[in-house]
Design brief:
The chain is built from 19 helices and 9 strands. By secondary structure, the chain is an alpha+beta fold. Strands 5-2-6-7-8 form a 5-stranded mixed β-sheet. Strands 1-9 form a two-stranded antiparallel sheet. Strands 3-4 form a two-stranded antiparallel ribbon. The longest helix has 24 residues.
Length: about 450
């Protein structure tokens, strides 16, 4: 198994990696498919299914599909240009596509929300279709957005994972294998992950890529700490990160704060990221948009509040976190629509706890223990966003996830790495819990907090 650090951490846009980034990526893939066809396409259609339909408006899924069919991609998203292109498509009922010309596409008519049973492959399904001059469908593909911005076609979903590329020196597929390889090689988890990455890319590209990831994460925190006003979507949720941060800075100047106030610092960094995500800003999936605040908040806490922290070691943090995230994705899920929020914030907390334990000097067994503690205490967590928006409870939930990550790392470092519940077993418990969880609690906004809201 090989999942690059740049697959676990992707630069994209809010508010959702599975509901916004994924559909945009799927649309781009469909356009590439159409460019290879031997006949002319005249129009486009799309249908959203399962969770993409039920919470699609709140997650801007319709907007993402429209812009994806217009050639936009998450990693090169231009918000100003997007608004102008979207307005033109809605007004003209046509989309201009590089290599395909001008095609009929009226979002009001050609983009459907299907609230029936989800497609069989995954709860996040969409169908993209191409039509001829008479309006008959001449090409069609089904895509599944499986979490974290990952997208597969219907045929890819059931196929064995691709094994293209150079062989990697440490091909661990479980935490047990990871620990055995670390013991036998004498390397840290980050060092093994780095060696795997270097089998596929040069050292300069790896270091520049890691630095870029942290820069985008850090910039997102800073924008969130400066932002004000209401978040879009109709809930009238106001940004709080700036006011909390200002108050914390003032209290720090008085040197009268209680020790537990550090939790507010950790929370505010995470909330800043997720307020930016909810506003459709640029974020890094970590491993998803809905959980994007946990890892950067933990890194910022470490850099700004822990003596001896060094920016030079952020890459070590990210590589360790990506190794843990890869295990969770490979053996369970990072998708809220598949396994609830335990798969999103829970996975993020495990990744952040592992990264923090590593840069604080933890051994591989202590790092694995930190990840297990963090994930274990998110088991059963539902994904129940009010009105389908990544706001309530998601913004605060990231803050608490970061606090749990720090606590898990600290607790693990108090031991020698020996513990009762292995990370592999905890990941399997999360998968089983997700399978058993009612669909109402898996990003459909049909249960939990989503239906228990004030009548106002």
């Amino acid at each position: 198994m090989f999942l690059s650090v740049f697959e676990m951490f992707k630069i994209g846009i809010g508010p959702s990696s599975s509901h916004t980034m994924g559909p945009m990526v799927a649309a781009a893939r469909f356009l590439d498919h159409l460019r290879g066809l031997p006949f002319r396409v005249a129009g486009l259609r799309a249908s959203l299914h399962g969770s993409l339909a039920f919470t699609g408006v709140g997650h801007a899924t319709d907007r993402a599909v429209i812009l994806g069919l217009a050639g936009f991609t998450p990693d090169a998203y231009d918000a100003g240009r997007a608004d102008a292109v979207l307005a033109a498509i809605r007004a003209q009922g046509r989309v201009k596509v590089t290599g395909l010309g001008e095609l009929r596409f009226d979002p009001d008519r050609d983009l459907a929300f299907d609230y029936g049973p989800p497609l069989p492959g995954h709860s996040n399904g969409l169908r993209l279709m191409a039509t001829d001059a008479q309006g008959d469908v001449i090409a069609q593909e089904t895509y599944y957005s499986i979490g974290g911005g990952f997208v597969v076609t219907e045929s890819e979903l059931g196929a064995a994972p691709a094994t293209s590329g150079s062989a990697i020196p440490f091909p661990f597929e479980s935490a047990a294998q990871m620990l055995d390889m670390a013991r036998d090689s004498g390397r840290s988890i980050a060092a093994m992950k780095r060696a795997n990455e270097l089998a596929r890319m040069g050292p300069q590209a790896l270091e520049e890529g890691l630095a870029r990831l942290w820069q985008v994460m850090s910039d997102c925190i800073d924008r969130g700490l400066a932002g004000e006003g209401e978040l879009p979507g109709g809930l009238r949720v106001r940004r709080r990160a700036r006011a909390i941060h200002t108050a914390l800075q003032a209290e720090a100047g008085l040197n009268l704060t209680a020790p537990h106030t550090i939790n507010d610092w950790i929370s505010v960094y995470a909330m800043a990221v997720n307020e930016e995500n909810a506003a459709g800003g640029q974020v890094v999936t970590a491993p998803t948009n809905g959980a994007a605040g946990v890892v950067p908040a933990t890194i910022r806490y470490w850099l700004d509040h822990v003596p001896g922290a060094s920016p030079a070691r952020v890459g070590e943090f990210l590589l360790t976190a990506a190794a843990i995230g890869g295990l969770v994705k490979h053996n369970a899920s990072i998708s809220g629509a598949e396994c609830g929020c335990q798969a999103e914030v829970g996975s993020a907390a495990a990744m952040a706890a592992a990264g923090l334990a590593a840069v604080l000097g933890g051994t591989p067994p202590q790092v694995e223990n930190a990840a297990e503690i963090a994930l274990e205490h998110h088991l059963g967590m539902t994904c129940d966003p009010v009105k389908g928006l990544v706001q309530v409870p998601c913004i605060e939930r990231n803050g608490l996830g970061a606090i749990k990550a720090v606590s898990a790392a600290s607790l693990a470092l108090r031991g020698d790495g020996t513990h009762f519940m292995p990370l592999d077993n905890c990941i399997e418990a999360m998968r089983q819990t997700g399978v058993d969880m009612s669909e109402k609690y898996k990003e459909t906004a049909l249960g939990g907090l989503a239906v228990n809201i004030p009548n106002c």
